[in-house]
Amino acid sequence: ELAGLRKDQRPSDAAVLKALRVWGFEKSTSRQNVLPDGLEWVHSDTLGVVTNRTDHNMQISVPCQGHENFMRLLSSWARRRSPDGDLPFTTISLNKNYAGRLHRDSGNEGPSIGL
Q1: Running DSSP on this structure, what letter comes out for residue 35?
Q2: Out of 29-38, 42-51, 57-66, least confident range
Q3: Beta bridge partner(s), residue 28
Q4: pTM for the whole structure
């Protein structure tokens, strides 16, 4: 669907839901600060620009590599929901089937929003 959109169009909810349903979420054990009680892992992927934890250089996250069109789809869909159609960001945290505990990510450079 994304390939057929005009420049001023955004993807539908149905198109994004279809893509999310086939996305291969990783089992993440690294989000200890937001894990619901009793769980050892959650389905969670970080997509976009991240800071490497060893040398602190910026890099494209591993789950994002090779999935540029998926990122374009999510970005375009999210911008459609922004009041002015603009939504600058560097990273998307994609979670499945869990509600993380209320928290503020310590490594964020700017504001966080939930969609």
Answers
A1: P
A2: 29-38
A3: 42
A4: 0.79
